Amino acid sequence: MPYKKSLMVEFVALAAIWGSSFLFMRLGGAEFGAVATAGMRVSIGALVLMPILWFSGHWNGLRRRAASILFVGILNSGLPFALFAFAVLSISTGLSAILNATVPLFGALVAWLWLKERPRNSRVLGLVIGFIGVVLLAADKASFKQGGTGWAVLACLLASVCYAISAIYTRRYLTGIHPLATATGSQIGAALGLALPTLWFWPTHNPGLGPWLSLIALGVVCTAAAYILYFRLIEKLGPVRAVTVTFLVPVFAIIYGTVFLGEDLTSWMLACGAVVVVGTALATGLLKLGR
Predict the structure, then answer these.
(1) DSSP code at position 222
(2) The predicted structure's pLDDT at residue 173
(3) 10 Å Cβ neighbour count for 73?
(4) Which of 2, 31, 179, 222 is most buried, most CB within 10 Å of its CB?
(5) Model pTM?
């Protein structure tokens, strides 16, 4: 019983941490901009994780597959972090987190198209339901007219696709590599990939203490610490159960956004979010209809 309680605490803690990342991206991005926010986040995360990897004795795992791991970093961290940092400047953190919950949904679709793992029975229904939820949510919020939020919604969905593709890539080409080596190498790869864009888009003014603290929180807590906690859960619960943390992240993101940013939460967002979560649960096999 204490063991199960410990896992539940870690599970909820990870959801709370990742939920806060949307808040910190909004606070930091307002001064640093989306690209510099993402660049600093992965750079700080890499600096924190590198000594941990070194003393863990798994540095050789990173060296052996460095090229592939660095590439995954750009796809799994660099691009999506920048896309979400851009999105939260235009749409609510809660909506961004709900769209982020589509990652397992896109993962099931990518596995179908790339690995030919065709979903059957309730999983096909889940894909349909999930994408209907996304379309309904996006149609209500996305507008590509001047001042609209269409590009922000599209950025969230593209970031989710990046996460899904990188997960399948990792599964196919990086099996057997220690998770800490993959996590650290991915942050190094993302930092290298965003180095020049970060310098190019670095703010001309001097951001205040608050935005700097937000970036530090993003890098240390929401990236480095979260990765360590996430891979602990994968080891204890398995990848299928661990990924369900994505469903709980929007709850915390919505709470943070409502309390600290005064964001509005509509019943339509909640309804569409529920449709997306149910569809994703079916598509990934976490929820089954019948036998």
Answers:
(1) I
(2) 86
(3) 27
(4) 222
(5) 0.89
Closest CA to 270 of 130, 137, 158, 84: 137
Q: What share of the chain is helix, strand, coil (3-state, %, to 5)?
A: 80, 0, 20
Domain residue spans of the chain: 2-283
Among residues 145, 149, 215, 173, the alpha carbon closest in space to that of 70 is found at 173
**CA 2, chain centre distance (Å):** 29
Taking the C-alpha atoms of residue 269 and residue 253, their distance in angstroms, rounded to an integer, is: 13
Q: Output the CA torsion sign for 209, 214, 218, 221.
A: positive
Determine contact, residues 203/32, Cβ cutoff 8 Å: yes
* Strand stretches in 75-136, DSSP E: none
Give the pLDDT band (50/70/90) at residue 176.
confident
Query: pLDDT digit string (tens) for 140-154?
Result: 666 666 666 888 989
